[in-house]
């Protein structure tokens, strides 16, 4: 039988390093991720989301409630290319712990930094196949499940070469009001044009995941997201009025076509994940 993780733990503690500090797995815009050990004798990852600057307690409650509703959906998802959610727990005021499977490996953005170079086409093909398989699985579920925050720092590669999507954009709409603008700029580069509408309400769709995936393909080949040279506040107008930047010189025609289908401005003309899986680049 496949070893399984038990989400029914009741107590846990942080694992510490030689200096007695919590073992840090990574830092993102949302919070810090540490190693934790449960009373089911399993080692897991725990993300501590701080809701600082949340002036209104009601807003925090609302965010956490929404987050919890989503986590119960995510808990039911079992896929080899998607991190397994275990549970979430609220500690103290305005702090949320999200427990997931512990992944041994690095995010694609860390890997590029560590090897000091982008990925070659063979790697992009391998990763893209696995990412599209995971997204297609999510998008085919009922109700449709979206990732909402696809980018290289949210895509991990295990030491064995298995892709794992992490960091679902849970209740991002609610959290967005509390997050620092610094983190908001980070994700701006991956947002589809249709997400900037007049009333400011963000409605994600499977096609906005595909757009972000296309931007991640660019990032795998350039080590920077599309339009990285522009200030973040210039991005919305840029992508609503211009085509997306080309992939670097030397990229094959097949990969250019694949990327082009992901970043079509008009969502209806943009490829769905099922179509991407059939694309010649992935064969
Ligand atoms: N389950 C995990 N196992 C191992 N490392 C992880 C795990 N989850 C996150 N990390 C590391 O922590 C970093 C930040 O985590 P992430 O969930 O993306 O947080 P944020 O919402 O703050 O961006 C990731 O880029 C990755 O390096
Ligand atoms: Mg992240």
UniProtKB/TrEMBL annotation:
PROSITE patterns: PROTEIN_KINASE_ATP, PROTEIN_KINASE_DOM. ATP binds at residue 47. GO terms for molecular function: ATP binding; protein kinase activity. Residues 19-282 form the Protein kinase domain. This is Protein kinase domain-containing protein. It comes from Macrostomum lignano. The keyword Nucleotide-binding applies. It holds the Pfam family Pkinase.
